[in-house]
């Protein structure tokens, strides 16, 4: 079993500043109940939870002008239960249809349900969850239920809940506490309602961003005695766990599903290969053919963006700091340049570095009229948008997510999503990508819940490769893909188990 | 510093049978001096040394009908030295020109020479080497010399020596003991002449296949007292080292350069993307457009083959045993099938699995007339060629490396290179790929030779990532590629050193 | 039988039924003024005008609930003129901004304006136009004005007018008669207001669909005495002209700009390569990677669709009736199948044939659950949508332009845009494509207006290749593309004029 | 000025100088029997015959040191006939095997044979042919025989005959007069032996380059009374025919098969897409990934080269003189430059223009060390190789077809094939491409031979599109490609015959 720490030394030189800063923020959260005043820092922390599973699909029922807080309403589902808190239980039917549509595109979870009809691998599990609440999450929750688990759920983001989906879950008996547009106080109240229950105590945690985990740490530390493990899927939440582990304060096993191979490939390479085109098209209706583009960063995201744009007839330049990735860019047919060399000539600038201030005001000053600037990488740090908030520049909002920043000489720069992530703001995350994530989460819960005593200690673990492979295999039928099985002779020759794992942990895929 | 063993568990379930068998063979080699009778097993062992650096370029001077054994000749170079043994010292001038041409395509080594003019990082190093002896190796050896080292060299393969290059090296003062067509006895005699010298004792070993290392283990174990490290580049040699390490018998640090990132990408993905086309074209003059091809295995080699053939207009099917690689194939646009599903319809079958008997007689029986079968993967095990040596089938050699195997009904299968590696038998390894390998070797030698006491123990190590990145960076100027440097602020933000390493060890590139 | 020197006979065997039928409809139009009752057939005819220049961009000001007909309003522009009829002259400012944005993406027309500052190639021209009225058309009209022409304009489609753009044109002095949502009676009234003017008679016609031309034929045949030529850009309009010419009734030269090389490539290959992805993504948010797609038809549109989807990792099958195009599909790496062979397995069906009933109810019955069906080809005939209007099937509108058609067993087919053109309904036509068309129109007008007596007779002509090349050359600066000039020696060697044309007319590009 | 109905005028402005000059040369040939002294000019003319069907495959039996001229030998085949003249009739068996292998890759001709078993469309035809004599030609000849024709054959090139194939044809009864290494006198003697026969007079001509046609014009003009037509496949030969036609001297119908769609696509786009890689690899063993390449000319050949190199990871620049092709290059993702802009930085220069002196000495002076220069376009005029024959430059032949040209400062330019066509000199033409050509020739012969009186006049014709489509359809089974048939309803709708032709003549594919 691979432990994160076994890659020691690695994390030593990889303690990025933004994580450290963030951790400071988070420690605050443990010390004092967030107040209205603390809202900015808190909502920032919340928004850093795993946005990769946040579907930008708009709620169909947002136009509701019901101003009453859900906390002040009395609602019951059709079976008479009122152990939930959602915007409007009457939206359940509409949410159910959304869930049914999502089910069709999440075949892996549906397959898990089928396989679990005899055995219930999560029988006895009491899972408390805190994630975005979308149709896809609903499919995950109902799958966990079908596998034998009891669940209670809150939202990990105050904006992302689909109210009708929450209603549908409540209607079918899930204690869900979430609505779109929660206040900060609501946010923590909902979480508390999930864990602070008479006669019910969770034994598993599924978290996205770490807020739930830390609430329990702060308020109900004794609860960890019964908890068998934590599954966490966000960069931020994972980082918090490693910090706890380092500080010797992690008192249960935790599984980092963010870094599983299958999830990473889909979150980055495959998803961005499509969303870069989609995001640019929806915002600008531009034509890609013949356009000169510079892509900053040639990691998985950059590779996806470059491949897509090259295929559409763009001329793509790449910038990189890492010589190995730089050499890959060369071998893939991209000119490797410094940003300054091409900044005057390009039509589009795309950042995918995970770094900060990759595009500076100086770069922006030198771009040509009409140049499009967007960020596919990380948070909102890559483009120095703040530097554009100066008096001599005029901002003009021309569409949703599209600003023209106008220089005194009339030059216009087209800034997308104000420098936030284009793929989340101006495109959608395909359900198939979310299916990969949800399946990974389900298997991690099963693994932790069923692991024999001693397999996992009070540490942070990667998903076992065999389970990672299983996630992949559950998605192959979607493509009518037929896997070959090793013969006994071949397995012996290769020194492999016929059922995997098939690769050493360091394999690079 | 990453140790191989830190990926523990991995190697545990990755002890392939063919390595185990081979190791048995190799142990024999330590026990008795190979005899004429032992030739088959030995030459097999030899041929398993790193064929990846074996250039198929023919010697220009092979037509020599000089039958005298070099061991029986008296030769001197122009400076009067006779401390060498080559086919014909008079071929030196021709070999020199080959070396000069190779120098032009190995800019990284030439850059190392320049940088080393002030400091001599290998001053005092006494390197004994055992590799293929080609123009590219010569550039490496002369670079090591320029960096301050003394070298003595033998061939790691009895067939691959370019005689004129060996002559050129001897002429310029390198004690080289190698010629094309050595007997088994010659082979070990040459190695012995490298190490068994009055008044000179090696302190570094550069090996390719492990024969030199094991000769010293067997005959001169005391020599290891002065040896600072071993650099090994072949799969086989690396495996031998891990066996020694496991058995507690490794008495110096060893560096596995086979698995460095840059080398792997070039040996597999980039090289095979081109050599699959080249190998097929040179042997069959076929047209790729519209052809149906099945590629068995979607690792780096398979990915390269698939990408190239797809780009040329072939219709490509993929078989896989690993669900993660299988899912990658799907997302890259290839139908994932079992071999049986398409075997009747495909025009070409390519194996890249590392496995054995992937293409069986049953498959061969079902292929259509004219189907081309070749192996890009591993050794000669992937296609069950032996099964074709039956009386009812007729073999017809139609060109060098091309056999028609004819069924009783007239059906012909086109078998390339008798199932051995197509890219080595029917294509060439570009100098640029060899430059990556040679640079990796040089840096590994420098690292081991200069490492402070205690950094490396008696174990097998991967090349430090920083050095791996350095290899890549030395090859960027070839592409006029300009790397971006982190600002201080950015480095701090990312928690990185501005000079690298830039990625954690588990990064998948 | 084909002779090199002549393409005659070509059109003989290419008189498709739908054109014949349509022509019958059109003849009706000449015979009687359309009435309310005739509306259906008429609007059908109208909708067959060149939809390729119809931008789907929504008007920003449609929410206006002003129900008064523009014909009943009294409006004046700021200069006091009331020679126009638009929805609301007060929207002029907003429309002006739209025009200014379009100007930035139509550099060829802007270049024409600049070059025309000295000479006014259209001085004296009185152009009456009937096209879609969009920001791009406005740039064309104002360019014609800058080149010296007077213009009067009506809309060729009762739905496509952008009211604010029409207002802006009216404000700056163009007599424009058009609004969104005209009745059939309005439609002809507007056209009539363009031509039936005291003291002004057109000498050039720019038409899109042929309605204007035929109105003049019917009502003011004497007007043709002063008319120097007609420029027509739609398939339908061009067909009408050939019919007139055949019948010996064409009394002025006409230029068919629909078939110019540059326009064709952009309307079909380049535009569809991007819009197929955009249209699918906006409607379904699907992931392309690994999906199985069948594209019916491998003309320019099919080639564009196939290339794009292949690049995104889809597995693409092609159907064709023409063996030459079929062989091209093979050589480009697509399996050529009959639709029946793959209909059960594909995830997406795309038609690009120009044919009718390519996808039949029988095919639809056999598709798998969730299969997406859309049309990129021609009109709305390719998919037999009517066959889905049967009682046992349920239609469910799930989004704008997206219907689920549900079979009794629960199978859902996802039908896009009800079988109408996906790229027009669910994507946008990039301004660059419209720029190519508009520039072609402008040059055709200049050519016809300035041609010496006798160059053009009463016939239909293709845009001279030299002008076609000029359109292309005006768009090269967008890409910072630098054309090479022939030396005198080279021009002589090739037998070419240094300024073109560079290719024979039969050249296939 | 171009009219839709006619492509006339086209050829008017396309009388390239090199064709005019060549024609002057050729007129000489009609005036005087070539003498030893005239050899240079003649062989030049000969070498300009259709080299596109010349396979570079070496004869396997050339090492023969038999110096006797075939004209002086007495040879009989096994049936006792001596009506042939080949190098050595005993090589027949080896040639037969070559023919049999070729048959497997020329399925279209084999299909024609089968279909012709009942009817013999060439019964009574007496065909005299003059082409390259290769295994593929043999398959064509034997197909013509199977279709009912009698044939007599000479070589169109003094170097390209495969002696063993000629022997096999002679052995099976074909009067063949050809051998490798004919003198000029031999060349015309062989042609004369084909036509000047007692009791046999040709009624069809199949020519490649026009030498046979013109020999008959000059020596046996009366023969044309019985000749039903000429089929010509080379650019040069076709040009000669148009000249004759223009001069009113063409006295039989002639068919230009060079410009048929299918043949053109395969000769240029599809063939060059593969042969550019093959030619570069075989000569230089270079790696394509990351290399900077400039391709001069973006016609079909240039498009093929660019697509292939881009796919292999090269960075490709394009130069063009034609704005339409230039715009295509932009939309396909290539930077359009003038050669001067990139000449210092590129690793490879490839010409595909059909022009002369595209690469001048000035360009060559500015290239960087190691730059590779080659010609994929036309003849040997594109690179000014003559300018490199100056005293200060040293030429060094490093391999067959590879010269290093060395500047005084040591800079080396790698010149391939001395500036002649790379794809013919250093690669092979796949049999599939030759199959397309041979099938086109066979169908043209059938058409001309069977055409009803009056269909063809004394003029030059293109292959009817229906036959062009038939050539394509005969090659579809190779790819297991399944063509869709129009329904009656669809055919009516499109105004097409169900059996084609499916496109108008001006269709651009």
UniProtKB/TrEMBL annotation, chains A, B, C, D:
Keyword RNA-binding included in the entry's annotation: no
Residues binding NAD(+): 299-304, 320, 423
InterPro entries found in the cross-reference section: Adenosylhomocyst_ase-like_sf, Adenosylhomocysteinase-like, Ado_hCys_hydrolase_NAD-bd, NAD(P)-bd_dom_sf, S-Ado-L-homoCys_hydrolase_CS
Entry EC no(s): 3.13.2.1
Cofactor binding remark: Binds 1 NAD(+) per subunit.
UniProt GO molecular function: adenosylhomocysteinase activity
PANTHER family per record: ADENOSYLHOMOCYSTEINASE, ADENOSYLHOMOCYSTEINASE 3
Positions of region (Disordered): 24-82
Pfam families documented for this protein: AdoHcyase, AdoHcyase_NAD
Reactions catalysed: S-adenosyl-L-homocysteine + H2O = L-homocysteine + adenosine
Gene Ontology biological-process annotations: one-carbon metabolic process; S-adenosylmethionine cycle
Enzyme class: hydrolase
Pathways involved: Amino-acid biosynthesis; L-homocysteine biosynthesis; L-homocysteine from S-adenosyl-L-homocysteine: step 1/1
Organism of origin: Heterocephalus glaber (Naked mole rat)
Name of the protein in question: Adenosylhomocysteinase
Domain S-adenosyl-L-homocysteine hydrolase NAD binding stretches: 268-429
Classification via Gene3D superfamilies: Adenosylhomocysteinase-like, NAD(P)-binding Rossmann-like Domain
SUPFAM superfamilies: Formate/glycerate dehydrogenase catalytic domain-like, NAD(P)-binding Rossmann-fold domains
Cofactor: NAD(+)
Biased composition (Low complexity): 43-62
PROSITE patterns: ADOHCYASE_1, ADOHCYASE_2
Binding of substrate, residues: 134, 208, 233, 263, 267
Example of a GO cellular component annotation carried by this entry: cytosol
Lineage: Eukaryota, Metazoa, Chordata, Craniata, Vertebrata
């Amino acid at each position: 079993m691979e432990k994160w720490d076994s890659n020691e030394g690695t994390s030593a030189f990889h303690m990025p500043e933004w994580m450290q800063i963030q951790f400071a923020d988070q420690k605050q959260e443990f010390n004092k109940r967030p107040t209205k005043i603390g809202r900015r820092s808190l909502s920032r922390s919340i928004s850093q939870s795993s946005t990769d599973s946040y579907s930008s699909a708009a709620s169909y029922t947002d136009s509701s002008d019901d101003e009453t807080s859900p906390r002040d309403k009395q609602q019951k589902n059709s079976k008479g239960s009122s152990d939930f808190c959602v915007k409007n239980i009457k939206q359940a039917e509409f949410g159910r249809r959304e869930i049914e549509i999502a089910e069709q595109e999440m075949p892996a979870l549906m397959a898990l349900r089928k396989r679990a009809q005899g055995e219930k691998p999560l029988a006895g599990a009491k899972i408390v969850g805190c994630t975005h609440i979308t149709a896809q999450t609903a499919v995950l929750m109902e799958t966990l239920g079908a596998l034998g688990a009891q669940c209670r759920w809150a939202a990990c983001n105050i904006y992302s809940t689909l109210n009708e989906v929450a209603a549908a879950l409540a209607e079918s008996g899930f204690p869900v506490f979430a609505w779109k547009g929660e206040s900060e106080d609501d946010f923590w109240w909902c979480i508390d309602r999930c864990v602070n229950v008479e006669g019910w105590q969770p034994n598993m945690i599924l978290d996205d961003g770490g807020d739930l985990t830390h609430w329990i740490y702060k308020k109900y530390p004794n609860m960890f005695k019964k908890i068998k493990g934590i599954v966490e899927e966000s960069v931020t939440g994972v980082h918090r766990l490693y910090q706890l582990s380092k500080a010797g304060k992690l008192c249960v096993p935790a599984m980092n599903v963010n870094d599983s191979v299958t999830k990473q490939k889909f979150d980055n390479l495959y998803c961005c290969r499509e969303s870069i085109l989609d995001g640019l098209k929806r915002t600008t209706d531009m034509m890609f053919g013949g356009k000169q583009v510079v892509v900053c960063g040639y990691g998985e995201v950059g590779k996806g963006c470059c491949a897509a744009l090259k295929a559409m007839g763009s001329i793509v330049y790449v910038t990189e700091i890492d010589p190995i990735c730089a050499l890959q860019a060369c071998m893939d047919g991209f000119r490797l340049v410094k940003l300054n060399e091409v900044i005057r000539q390009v039509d589009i600038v795309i950042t995918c570095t995970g770094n900060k201030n990759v595009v500076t005001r100086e770069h922006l000053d030198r771009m040509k009229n009409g140049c499009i600037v967007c960020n596919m990488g990380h948070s909102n740090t890559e483009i120095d948008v703040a530097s554009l908030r100066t008096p001599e520049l005029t901002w003009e909002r021309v569409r949703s997510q599209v600003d023209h920043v106008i220089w005194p000489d009339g030059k216009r720069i087209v800034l997308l999503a104000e420098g936030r992530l284009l793929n989340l703001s101006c495109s959608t995350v395909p359900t198939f990508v979310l299916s990969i994530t949800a399946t990974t989460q389900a298997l991690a819960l099963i693994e932790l819940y069923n692991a024999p005593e001693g397999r996992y200690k009070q540490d942070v673990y990667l998903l076992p490769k065999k389970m990672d492979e299983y996630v992949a295999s559950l998605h192959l039928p979607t493509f009518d893909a037929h896997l070959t099985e090793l013969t006994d002779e071949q397995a012996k020759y290769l020194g492999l188990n016929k059922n995997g794992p098939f690769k050493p942990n360091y394999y690079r895929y």
